[in-house]
Every structure is written in C-alpha cells, then in structure tokens.
Amino acid sequence: MDLQTWKKFAVLQWVLTFLLVGPGCAAIMLILFRTSWWSAVLLYGVWYYYDRDTPRRGGRRVNWVRRWGLWRRMAEYFPVKLHPTCELDPKENYVLGYHPHGVLSTGAFLNFATEATEFSRKFPGITPYLSVLDGHFDFPLYREYFMCSGVISVRKRRRKTAGGQLVCVIPGGAVEALDSHPGTVYRVHLRNKLGFVRLAMQTGSSLVPCFSFGEIDLFNQPAARCGRGHGLLPFAKPINTVVGAPIKVEKNYEPTDEQARDLLNRYISDLELLFCANKAKYIGTDARLEIV
C-alpha cells in the first residue's frame, strides 16, 4: 500500500467508524444475545450499567491509542495543522471553543482527541479532552473505543481538578454543521451559546477562542447532509487550527445571564480578532466571518 492510499484508508476508516460502527456494535450485541454467547453479552450489560457515568467523569483515555500512526496519516491527507499563538499555563484549566463545527469536526478530533498534530509538544503540561454529545456513548463496545482518545460527554460533571486540563467544546452543534458551505464565508452560530461560557465561569477556567480555517471545505453541502464529500472521502483541503490567547475567568458558581452574556461578548470580540489576524495567512483576505 503506497503512502497516499494509506492516508485515504486512514480517513475512510474514521468516516465509516463515525457513521456505522456504533449502530453496528449494537446490532452485533443483539445478535449475540440470541446465541450461546448470551451470557457474555449479559455480563457486558452489567459492566455497561456500572460504567455508564464514566464519559461524564473524565472518560478513560489511552495515550497509546491517541498516538497511533493512523491518525498522523489521516492528518497528512488534508493536511491538518495546529498553530498556537501563545503558551498555556499548565497550572490553569481551560475551556476552548472550537469554531466552526464543520460537517464532522475533523480538525477538532485530530487536534484534541489524538496526537496527530503534536498537541502535547505544542502545549506541554496540558491534557486535552474533546467533548461530544451523550449519544455517542449509548452504543455498546463503540463507547469503549471512542473514550480511548480522551473524548468525554458534553455533560461532564463539574468537579475540582488539578491544573493543566483543557476541554474542547464545539458550541455550533448540528445547526452550524448544516450551515457549513465551502468557500470564504464562515457562519458561526454563537451569539446565544451561553453553555460553554457558564462552564468556564462555574469552574474558573480560562476561555480560549480557537478558529479552524478550512473546516468548512471538506464537504459540498448537498452531499454533506449524507456525510459525504466525493464518495465517502472528504475533500483533501488544508485545515489550519489557530488557538488564541486565553481569557481569564473568575470562578462564579451561579453566574447571571447578564454576566454570562458579557463574557460571551468579550469572547466573540477576541474570536473576531483572531479570525482577522490569521485569515490572510490561511484562507485569503476575502474571507468573512458571520457570527449569528
């Protein structure tokens, strides 16, 4: 297998895993339950119930999985690159907002759920977590594999933690995914997204704006509704993820709507500055950011 084919395989297995492996694992468990393997399925069911809150308690990362060469080949296919604009203090905790969502949040996965772009070297002492919807952890077996990369539930329970933790949140969600069109106009759904801001305030974590140039270029929108670029492969378009400077946040267990909105407005201002400062380098001077 030549290198380019290997890169395509790496991307294809990820797309198929995202689309099919979860439901496939559930179907396999149901089939096995009707065979002589029913007792093994039952035992796993007991384990599943006992372990059901793990995705909300920090997950179960396996660094060996995060460092697979498979992820590096996948990152090289586009390519995906991570660009820090400043250092992050490992004594502090961070909530990073990732924009835009794109169709499959490819850059978010490769940058924060794997070591494909050398996150640990670029941000020494920081442990990243990628937060996703709870539904990803409903599928048996698939949830175990998915958690290995350091992925956690977006409903992660707040608790006291040591410094050096970074939680990546993708506020735009499914609505923003459907609003992702290749080109120079980036529509980011953010003005009413107070949840990740409240999380930062309630935990006293610094807010970090992050913009991923090229994330919207991987799929044509009509095909994107089916999760496809050309065939099942996304387009090989570069993704440049720029991590901005953190905004210091004071801990506030019960922030008011006004306090949360004031912080969100400051965050939006910093995100716009980050976009304008980097667009010429990574996408072109005619690129435009629309925050809705």
TrEMBL record:
GO terms for cellular component: endoplasmic reticulum membrane. One of its GO terms (molecular function) is diacylglycerol O-acyltransferase activity. Keywords: Acyltransferase, Endoplasmic reticulum, Glycerol metabolism, Lipid biosynthesis, Lipid metabolism, Membrane, Transferase, Transmembrane, Transmembrane helix. Its main location: endoplasmic reticulum. GO terms for biological process: glycerol metabolic process; triglyceride biosynthetic process. Its EC number is 2.3.1.20. The keyword Transferase applies. It is a multi-pass membrane protein. Pathway: Glycerolipid metabolism; triacylglycerol biosynthesis; Lipid metabolism. It is found in: Endoplasmic reticulum membrane. PANTHER family: ACYLTRANSFERASE, DIACYLGLYCEROL O-ACYLTRANSFERASE. This is diacylglycerol O-acyltransferase. It comes from Macrostomum lignano. The lineage of its organism: Eukaryota, Metazoa, Spiralia, Lophotrochozoa, Platyhelminthes.
